[in-house]
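JOB MANIFEST
job_type = single_chain_structure
chain_count = 1
residues = 206
[input]
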Amino acid sequence: MAVVLENALKENLKSGKLLPVYILVGEDAYLKTLYLEKISKSIADKDDIFNYNKFNNQCNLQEVYDSVMQMPMMSDRKCVILSDYDFKHCSDSDFEKLLTLILETPEETTFILYFDGIEIDLKKGAKFKKLVSACEKNGGLAVELKHRTRAELVKMLCQGALKRGTKMDSATGNYLVETCGEDINLLSGELEKLCAFVGEGVVSKA
């Protein structure tokens, strides 16, 4: 299985069937954070110490393994996140332990590997391909989250305006992207301010 793109992840989440393993990589930090939070929030709150556990790149993999294998408490599922683990430079034994962890994640757990500060070569990275293969064998998804196209950004802005009770046509949305750039964080902030200012009216180019 190749690494899939955002639409495949959206379809999976829309189905409501959470998978045992997700690997989130790609150039768009906003989208990676967005989907990390969408998945985790659908399982447990961050203050739920039994069903929400997050580990960083300084962790002991055995602790991660123990957390993943522990059954959820007073809940159907638990969420375990491993952020920016440097699998490219870890020991062979730790890498094998990570593969085992991915392969053995039980159905009651969602294990998310989230990479933001580590550059990953999706085509030539032999170790990464092994992670993807293990993820596939356990019925998970490895997702590359790329920057959205201009058309996708304009559609996002127009739909976002409607959700806020405001109207914006595609020409205005395109002008906003031209003016502010293609960073989703920045565009979302500007859209919020524009809709608050206009209220139930129409956001114009002016």
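[summary]
The first strand starts at residue 21 and ends at 25.
Residues 121 and 177 are 29 Å apart (CA to CA).
exit_status = 0
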